[in-house]
Structures are given as C-alpha cells and as structure tokens.
Amino acid sequence: MIKKISIILIFLMGLLTSCIESNQLEKLAIIHSRGIDVSDDGQIDATMAIFQFQAQSEEFTKIVTGRGSTIKGTINHASNESDYKLVPGKLQVEVYGAEVAKDGLTPFLDTLKRDARVPDRVYLTVSDTTAKEILMTPPKKITTNIGQYLQGVIEESAANNYFPKVTLQEFGTTANMAGKDPILPVFSIGDLDVPEINSIAIFSEDKQVGTLPIEELELFNLMTRRVEARTLEITLPTEPLRDFFVKEPKEDSIHTAYTIEKGKSKIKQDKKDELSFITEINMDLSLVELSDQIDLDNPESIKAIEKEIEKKISSRYEDIMQQLQEMKADPFGYGIIYRINTDDGKLEPKEWKEIYPDINVEFKVNTRITRHGTINI
Amino acid sequence: MDINVNVKSNVQIKAFYLFYVIVGTQIGVGIMGAPRFIFTEARQDSWVSILIAFVFMSIVVLVMITILKQYENADIFGIQTDVFGKWIGTILGTLYVLYLASSLLSILLTYSQVVKIFLYHTFPNFTLGAMLLFLTIYAVFGGIRVVVGVTFIFFFLTFWLILLFYDPITRMEWTNLLPMFQATVPELLKGARATTYTLAGFEILFLIYPFIQNKEKIKLPALLGLAFTTFILMVTTVISIGYFSHKGLEHVDWSVLILFKSVSLTFFERLDYIVIVEWVMVILPNIVVLMWAITYGVKRLYKVPQRISVYVFSVIFLVIVSFMEYEHHISIITDYVSQVSFWIIFVYPLILFPLVIIKKKWRKNKGSAAK
C-alpha cells in the first residue's frame, strides 16, 4: 500500500515542476512607480520606474516607457525595452497626468483592482502637467530613485499629518460612495526642480474637477479627522484688536501662527431643514508667532484674538465650500450625513450631485488659545 | 441495514471535539465571498441577517439533537430507514451522500479558481486537486479519530488569520453601516438565506453522532461551534461593508481575501499570498470531513468498504475538477449546492422531526397493545 502511494507521489512530483511559471528574481524588473498619460491618438503612455537586481550592473533602478491601448499592453511594450519581465507586485506610486485625471480614472483603476497581484496599498497621485514629467525628474537632483522619492514624500507628509496618503482602496471606496468624493495630492515640479506636493486635487466621483491651494489643507484635515500638532497660519486685521497693541500698529493686518494642539469637527444636519448643515469645529491652539506686539496678559486680548480667528476661519471655510459647490464635489462628506438621515438610507451619487449645490452649511468655529509661549507680548 | 450503529469504544470521540468538527466543516471556501451575497440582499443590516441565521441554525441543531436522542445510537441513514422503510430510506440516504459529494466538489473547484486568480495563472486544476485529495485519502484512512484530529489541529493553525483583520479595520468607513435597521423583514430573511452556503456543515452532526462517547453533553459544544462560525462570518461581513463602498461590495468576488491585500508587515510585503496558501488549512478539514462522511454513508447504505469507495470518489472528483474550467460553470454548481443545502440541512430536519415522533408513538402504542 505505502509503496504504491509513494510511487504515485514520485510520479506526481515529476509533473509538478512544470506547473507554475517560474519567476527568478534576477530576470524580473519590479515596477515601483508608474506614470499614466494618454496621448492624442488615444494610446496610453506609461512611464515606469523599475528595480532590477543584477550582479553586474551598478544601477539597479531604471526608467522605462511603454505605449499601448491598455495598461497591460504598455507593460508588454516596455518589457521589450528592458529585456526583463516587468511585474506589478510591488507597485507603490501611480501618477496620473492632468488630462487623464480630468477624464476620469475608472478605466485605469480597473486593472489595478482586477489583477490580484497588484497590491491594494498603491498611492494614487496626480501631476499638474504630465505624469511623464514627474517621473523623468533628473536623478541627480534627488538622492534616491524617483519612485522611492515620491513614495517618501507621500509617506512623510502623511506621517506628519500633512497630506493624507490616499491608497487605491481608499480612492476606489470613496469614489464609489454616494455622498463623499475623494481628494488626491497634486505633484508639480517646484522651484528646486524636484517634484513636490503643491495643491489638492478635488474629485467628483472619479473625475478631477478642480484644485484648491495647499494652504487650505489644514482646513481639509480638520474636516476629515482629528488634527494634532499642526501649524496654522492666520492673518488677522488689526482694527478690532487696536486696544491691545503695545505700540500703535504700523500695518492693517497682523500675521500670526499657531500650533493646533487638538482640533476636530462635527457635522450635524438641521432637524427642520434637511438641506441645512451645521459644522462645528473645535480647536485648541497654542500661539507660536506674532508679527507685532500685543499685550497677552490681558485676558480680554486673548478673547479678542480668538474671536477674530473664528471669524477668519469661518470665512475661509465658506469660501472653500462655495468653490466646492461650484465644482459639485463633496470631499467633506455632507452626503453621508444626508444619506444616513434619509428614510431608506439610500442615495445615488447622481441624486446627491443634484442636491449638493443647494445645501447650506453654517460653520461654527470655536477656538481656545490656551498658551502663548515663553513671552507675554 | 441496522438502524443503530455499533461503535467500538476505541473509535469513539469526546463530545468536546464536536466544536472543532462543526467549525472545521462550516468555515471553508464559502466565507471568502459570503459578505457580497448577504449584502446584496440585506444591505447595511447584513449583520442582523447573520444573527437571524444563527438563531434559525441553533433551532435546527436542537431539533437534530432531539431526533437523534429518540434512538439509541443511530445516524441519519438508520433513522431514514426506520421512518421511511428500506427502499425510500436508501434512496434518501443516497441523495444525502450525493449532496455531500457535490458540496465537496464545489469546494475543490472554488479553491482552484482562487489559486488561479490570486497566485498562479497557469496552475492546473488537476495538480491542485490531486494534492488535496492525496492528503484527504491519507486522513480518511486513519478513520474517524484522525478526521476529528485534523479539524482540531487545523483550527489552531488557522485561527491567527483573524488577527490580520487589524489592518482593514483601521481603513473602514464606519458610516457605511448607517443607518441601521432599514432592511425590511423579507430582505433580512433573504439575507439570512444567502448565508446557507457558508454556514452549511453542521449536518455532519447527523453522521458523527453514533461516534460520540458522552452524548448527554453534545448540546454545548455544538452550539458553541455555531456561535463561533457566526461570529467569524459577522466580523468579516461588517469589515467588508466598511472597507468597500456599497456599490463596490456588490461587484467584488472573494471580498474577504481582498481584505487581506492591504495587510503588510515590514518583513513581509504581501501577506495576502500567505493567506491564500494558508487557506488550504481552512478548507482541508472541510474536505476531509466531507470525504469521510461520503465514504461512511456509502458503507452504511451499500456495505462498500471505505478504503475502496474513498479511491473511487477521489478519482471521480479528480476527473471532474480537471475538466471544469469556466468560472460560470463553477458558480452554477455553487449556486445549486447552496439551493439544495438550504432544503436538506435547514428544512429537512424540521420535516423529519414530527415523523420520527409519530413513528415512536406508534411503535409504543403497538408495543403496549401487544402486551
């Protein structure tokens, strides 16, 4: 009995060797990041930063490009250029050209979702020109390879609570969700000739409908999660604070900076009017910079500053909200609150896009300046 | 055929192991895609559906235990022969065995499909089937104690997978579960019915009962087993609803496997590869228990020795698995198994119950009349 079984098993072993395609590390090129552009004739241009592990070669990273009508086709095309087999198993960053993002990302997300070998943690980003330009940054300007550099920027800014890292899974989930739209970081070539995040791409479902300046990011962060240890810069008018200045102020406005010690927000729907929302934002601030001297020992002065900050931030939020309503994009997720309070809990994205421009949002900002550093003026 | 089974004390098992047998037979390939099917029916209230399924399942199991208690040491085949007579009893028994066989087949097919999509596109079904069936034959040759041992060991070897959910939980959008209690009662019941394929497996109680040593204690481990499976199904469903968007979850096959795709450790980038391979350990208890049940049923019904029927069935399975390629065909088989299992394991015991009681009363009356 045992003999028989072992004979069959040995026989089977012979068959098994050819079952699985072999992937030898030395013969693979691992795609680390990829830029997607669409050319005028409708073909996809992919620029890929790859890793190769070969004993002889000194450079283990390389940029290859491919053209094709599908993304897999571009990979095939690029394989010819590198005489390696390109594999997407560790894709980390995907950059979309500005045109691509405007036309919608769905066609390009398909293969990322369908192919089980692509990881779910790919970071999605948008370029303000073409993706190729970002990936073709001369390697001399940055110490690492471009792919790792982009990944580093995204992860570092996320670790500092600067820009939330948006993965494939999050983008896909939010883009499909009724009542919330995704945002992505926009990379552009900055003054130092290296890519940097310079604005926020606002999406309506999967299409980019506009951008907002990166300075508003803190306000975005406050709306979506708890914010801690972030710096906030606010310019206040001097007029309402006139009584508290140590010397007569020279200018009309005073520049101030704060560290947000704790900040969070809450959205409530008005019980009587389903299209009215109240957003409460609570912040504990610590004053870290003043461009002119104010007598901070006077509790009235702190109160007056708090009040001015509240006014200022509310008006900044109202500005943003107006722009977002014009773009018909809802990154703050008012639609979720709306959906939860409907009778049947159902809301189609299209339906919400109709309603959204008509909603009224009242921003109630409460700030407390709890500390003002080691000096009292 | 004898209604009661004579079981030697050296092949008996303790009632305590019933927990592992039930969990091992219930959790398998079904759970990989279950959230989607439940969600399509009951939307964000899917967890209520699962609780309803649990209550219903517990009632069925208690009824099954009551049926079995009417006899000294019988299994489903003996009971059917007693209630319906020799001919109908054998036919019904054969149907039962065929159901078990088709459910085993659907497991093999689904798993080979998953391996092809997630790991190796060129991996032949034949090889995968052969490897799994070799292990199965090996285990079934060991007899009931080895079969139960397999479920026991693999429970602990796979339990840690649930810890990996820490990552998808942090990525969840909790508002997807709101508003609660929106589904109507029919929707909830439909959702509960969608769990059938995943929760099927406790019918093994009907077959394994004669082998249990301390029969008076079987209620607790059996119900605990059901509760554990329900808990796992509920956790995976709730996480899936939060992790995917509503629109997204309706279109995702094997959502539970995709949950593992975002897990990554510093020393291991793609943990999902391990999870899919590890899933062999989840389905192996399934296959082993079912194979044992099939061959045991054939032995009871037709007196064919288990060591012969296990080979015959393995060859049949291997041939079918090698030729089934289309995903479409596989889902037809799975749907069919899921339909049939609803009637056989959820409804049938409730029909059998009054018949067994009537039969017992009738026999008692006849006995007292004869006196």
UniProtKB/TrEMBL annotation, chain A:
Keyword set, alphabetical order: Germination, Lipoprotein, Membrane, Palmitate, Signal
Superkingdom classification of source: Bacteria
GO CC, one annotated term: membrane
Biological process per Gene Ontology, one example term: spore germination
Residue span(s) of domain Spore germination GerAC-like C-terminal: 199-373
Domain Spore germination protein N-terminal: 22-188
PANTHER family for this protein: SPORE GERMINATION PROTEIN B3 (PTHR35789)
Family to which the UniProt record says this protein belongs: Belongs to the GerABKC lipoprotein family.
Name this polypeptide is given: Ger(X)C family spore germination protein
Organism field: Ornithinibacillus caprae
From TrEMBL, chain B:
Localisation: Membrane
Membrane topology per record: Multi-pass membrane protein
TM stretches of this protein: 15-34, 46-67, 87-111, 123-141, 147-166, 224-244, 274-296, 308-324, 336-358
GO biological process: spore germination
InterPro entries: Spore_GerAB
Keyword hit for Glycosyltransferase: no
Family matches, as NCBIfam families: 2A0309 (TIGR00912)
Protein family (similarity comment): Belongs to the amino acid-polyamine-organocation (APC) superfamily. Spore germination protein (SGP) (TC 2.A.3.9) family.
Protein name per its UniProtKB record: GerAB/ArcD/ProY family transporter
Species this protein is from: Ornithinibacillus caprae
